[in-house]
C-alpha cells in the first residue's frame, strides 16, 4: 500500500470519527449504565449519555427514556401475561397495535422470544420481547429513532440487545 493511499485512508477514518463525535455518537465511547426493573427483575444496559429518564409508570412495570440530542426513545417494561399470549400471538398483537404504519423488515422468533424491526418514512423501530416464568411474564424493550440516525443507533441497539435479560424470580410472582 502506498503512503498516499494510507494517508487517504487515515484521513477518511479521522473524518468519520470527527463526524460521529460531533453528532454525539460513538459506539465504544458510550457511558453504559445498568437498568434493573425492581418489580419484575428484568435488566439491560443503556447509554446514559444518549438517553435520559423521562417518566416511570406508577405500577413500576416500565420506564420511558428520551434522547438527549434527538427525537429517539427507549421504552422498557414488563407485565404479567394475563391474556395468555403465546410468542406468536403477542408478536402479531404488537405488530398491529404498536407499529401499524411501519414496514416490518425483520421478525425472527424463538420459543420464548421475538424481535420486530422496521421503519416508516421518518423513524426506525426495534423491539425485543422475551417471555419468562413459563410465559407468565412478558419483558420488552423498544427503541424508536430517526432514520437519518440509523448508522449511529445500530451499535446502540446491539449493545442494549446483548445485555437484555428477563426477570427470573418466578417464585416472587407466584406470591404476589
Written account of the structure:
The chain is 30% helix and 35% strand. The chain has 176 residues and is an alpha+beta fold. The chain folds into two domains: 29 residues; 145 residues, Mog1/PsbP, alpha/beta/alpha sandwich (Protein Transport Mog1p, Chain A, 3-Layer(aba) Sandwich). Strands 3-4-5-9-8-7-6 form a seven-stranded antiparallel sheet, sandwiched between helices. A two-stranded antiparallel ribbon has the order 1-2. A hairpin with a 6-residue loop joins strand 6 and strand 7. It starts with a helix and ends with a helix. The N terminus is likely disordered.
Brief summary:
30% of the residues lie in helices and 35% in strands.
List the helices and strands and how they pair.
Elements: H1 3-23, E1 32-36, E2 43-47, E3 51-56, E4 62-67, E5 73-80, H2 87-98, E6 103-106, E7 113-119, E8 123-132, E9 137-146, H3 150-163, H4 170-175
Antiparallel strand pairs: 1-2, 3-4, 4-5, 5-9, 6-7, 7-8, 8-9
Amino acid at each position: 500500500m502506498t503512503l498516499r493511499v494510507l494517508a487517504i485512508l487515515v484521513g477518511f477514518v479521522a473524518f468519520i470519527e470527527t463526524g460521529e463525535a460531533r453528532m454525539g455518537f460513538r459506539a465504544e465511547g458510550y457511558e453504559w449504565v445498568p437498568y434493573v426493573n425492581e418489580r419484575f427483575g428484568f435488566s439491560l444496559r443503556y447509554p446514559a449519555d444518549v438517553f435520559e429518564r423521562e417518566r416511570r409508570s406508577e405500577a413500576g412495570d416500565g420506564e420511558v427514556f428520551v434522547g438527549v440530542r434527538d427525537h429517539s426513545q427507549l421504552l422498557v417494561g414488563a407485565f404479567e401475561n394475563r391474556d395468555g399470549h403465546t410468542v406468536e400471538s403477542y408478536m402479531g398483537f404488537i405488530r398491529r397495535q404498536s407499529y401499524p404504519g411501519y414496514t416490518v423488515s425483520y421478525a425472527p422468533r424463538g420459543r420464548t422470544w421475538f424481535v420486530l424491526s422496521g421503519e416508516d418514512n421518518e423513524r426506525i423501530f426495534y423491539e425485543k420481547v422475551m417471555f419468562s416464568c413459563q410465559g407468565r411474564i412478558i419483558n420488552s424493550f423498544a427503541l424508536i429513532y430517526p432514520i437519518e440516525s440509523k448508522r449511529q443507533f445500530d451499535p446502540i441497539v446491539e449493545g442494549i440487545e446483548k445485555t437484555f435479560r428477563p426477570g427470573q424470580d418466578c417464585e416472587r410472582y407466584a406470591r404476589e
